[in-house]
Amino acid sequence: MKTKTFSIIVAALAAIVALTSCGAKQEPSALIAQSDRIEAELNTIAEGSPMFIDTVGVTYADGNLNVGIAFCDSTVKVAEYSEALVEYVLSQYLKAHTGKNLDTVINTLAKEKGQLRITLGDVYGTSRCYPVGASRLVQLVKLKNMELNYNDVRSNIADILASQCVQYKDQYKAIDAEFEIKGGFAQYKLTFPRATAYANLNQASLTGRYLKTLQARYENYGECRPIIEELLRSLSIDGYRFIYTDKNETKTLSAAIPWRLIDK
Q1: Are 59 and 37 in contact (CB under 8 A)?
Q2: Of residues 186, 171, 173, the one with CA closest to residue 241
Q3: Which residues of the chain have pLDDT under 70?
Q4: Phi/psi at 257 (5° precision)
Q5: Whole-model pTM?
Q6: In angstroms, how far is the first alpha carbon of the chain from the final one?
Q7: Residue (of 124, 18, 40, 125) closest to 75 by Cα position
Q8: 8, 41, 134, 177: least surrounded by Cβ within 10 Å?
């Protein structure tokens, strides 16, 4: 009787262990498959943007989804990119890719208490990580542009565009170059010693001078071009404007270049 009772107890314990073992078994994280999917999508974009993006990589580790993007365009300086700007661009991307996959990513990150960790790198050796938690991802999908640090993002973009003043100044030997977002345009004002420096130009020829430059630049963005243009449009930037003047402001020449011309 004791032997029989002991056997029953052992069997019961074995059954309990078996049940609890099955309950403790963990399925592979859904983020593993999602990382492969996202990497494939980003690789398609990168392959279509060879003059802008060098490499991309997406991995899953310790509950985090790690996205790495290395740029090959020398105009990209990661040090200039604020957290607000990266989240703003991410918000635009997420809103264009809602659905079951995005729900799985956000829900799994929340469950595993992980983060989406975006790391950007440039040709200058600068690298910066931008971590975004699941709750913030939900906000980025739901909030309007004006609720996503809009003014800070617009100011950040203005600073980035202003950094091109030196290039524009040196290209045609101006003595000064200023930038501001004005009247819906990204405006560059170049000052020359004398008006004779641009006496042979009119509005049409000034437009042509910079239109070719802008068209070439946006061509280099490749598959990233719609993302960049949408970013600027969302910040109420409808194109570019170039103004030539002399230091005594005796003659001013202006040319506006809207997106419809750049996109031809």
Answers
A1: no
A2: 186
A3: 1-26
A4: -125, 95
A5: 0.88
A6: 93
A7: 124
A8: 8
